[in-house]
Amino acid sequence: MLEEKLSPRQRQWLYGVGVAAVGLLVTYKIIEPEHAPMWLDMFVNVVGIGAPGVATGTAAVVLNKQRRDGTVE
After folding, report:
1. CA–CA separation, 5 and 1 (whole Å)
2. What Cα–Cα distance (Å) separates residue 51 from each residue in 27, 35, 55, 63, 73?
3. Is residue 55 within 8 Å of 40, Cβ to Cβ?
4. 50 by DSSP, 3-state: which?
């Protein structure tokens, strides 16, 4: 879906925004800490980037490494 329309840089930014948003929601006690992984999975599925069960933060780190290595432009 969006993976085909967004550049790797844009996807990395979006991953970071998702992780930060969930972190803020936990900090302000809007969601429970044990529910954070579920919300991250939902973010990945709604946005249509990645695969279910893949942690958004992990995806951002992997994508950053791939961009530095030149695997992904």
Report:
1. 7
2. 26, 18, 9, 14, 20
3. yes
4. coil
